[in-house]
Request: fold
Amino acid sequence: MKRTDLTFKPSLVAIVLATTLLSACGDDNDNMPPVESTPPAAVMQTFTVTVTNLTANQPLSPVFLAAHNAETYLWKVGQPASVAIEMIAEGGDASGLEALENLTASVTGTNPILPGMSETLTLSVEESAVANISLASMLGNTNDGFTGVNSYNIAGMEVDAPIMMRRMAYDAGTEVNSEAKGTIPGPADEGEGFNEQRDDINFVHGHPGVISQYDGLADSVLMPSHRFDNPVVAIKIVRTE
Amino acid sequence: MKRSIISISLLAAGLFSVSTQAANIEVSVTNLTHGNHFTPILIATHDGDSQLFNVGEKATPALQKMAEGGEIADLNTAVTGAGGMTIMNPAKGLLAAGHTADSDMLDTGDNNYLSIVAMVLPTNDAFIGLDSWMIPSEAGRYTVYINAYDAGTEANDEIINGGGMPGVAGIPFAPSDDGGENANGVMDGSQNMHVHIHPGVLGDTDPAGGASDLDSRIHRWLNPVAKVVVTVK
Reply:
């Protein structure tokens, strides 16, 4: 099957969907000629999001970060994962998430975040469109483990008043956690990434952790250092302007 | 000028903290685990003098009944006897992994604190626990992630043998029929008799024997194990 490697090609396109805000007046009166006026210069708010990998030996795939409205979620616990979440959870491939509609802005990191390391991503959103942000990244040495932020409200944040949070690991539920050779894309195995087949319980849930070959899973390629506990990431959000 | 504003806000905060405000709340509990059930859930609002459980202390007999066998009647009696308001069993039975139980509206009366418990099954004496979470006075939707605790009342031998009564060793049953049998038992002599964070189950991959009747690929978890959403009306 298709093998999406965890060398994580640099994000193809940083899709920044320009916010279209040229909607004219809510026209009850279609006969009025359109009013020509220069729209006021857009006031932007810029946010930096720093992600720190708290795990012992789980590289995080290049982080996908997006701004969107308050109704958008990347996943729902207990519901089947979207294909976009399945792609990032099984293979670290953010392209499905980048292609989502109704993102106000999005950016994907260029490299994996190695254990103990941090990366800062920057997102600019027109002030009137500031609502929620989401973030997602794969735990590379798992079958389909991921972490992220799921529709967190940043409207009303003050400049230079950081918000800190820590987040847990989720299991996309799309690929059985066999830990077997050839099934894990990270450096522990360099196996397969995304595979559209779904052979697990098919709903998103809290990741139960990995077992490893040292703890009784005979076919596992994982070692004790690949185990993890929650939380798996620390996140710092700062509005810079 | 600045100081007076501060003192006014402190005064206001002080007033709010002593006044008890009746509120209507709705509570939803989502099972975040891969393959464990929650037994009937007890949702309780109570005053600051009551607790369903207390980490670092011995479990009460009522808590032990809940943690070892899923029986919440005694805890409910204790809470309501102390003026608390409760909702019992919002899932109307077991709450499977990935599922959410939504409570009916609960009038908190004079009670400012929310606690929630349910046994994690199949385990010896694990339970999900929210202890004395202060109910906000401001209307809104609040999310809390909660952990699995170990009641400290029974060794985690991981043997499924129908044992659910307090003091009887063993696990009552595996609701999804995905447990094993004939395990030798997980024995390490640990003796923490106080309520503590559950270390998680071990399990194995041998359904016909081995150390554990639990399956390491199905029954393990990491905390948090439940997502609680409280809607204050």
Confidence is low (pLDDT under 50) at residues 1-19 of chain B. The interface with chain A takes residues 30-35, 97-100, 145, 200, 202-205, 216-217, 220-225, 227 of chain B (CB under 8 Å). Residues 2-18 of chain B form the longest helix (17 residues). The two ends of chain B are 35 Å apart (CA to CA).
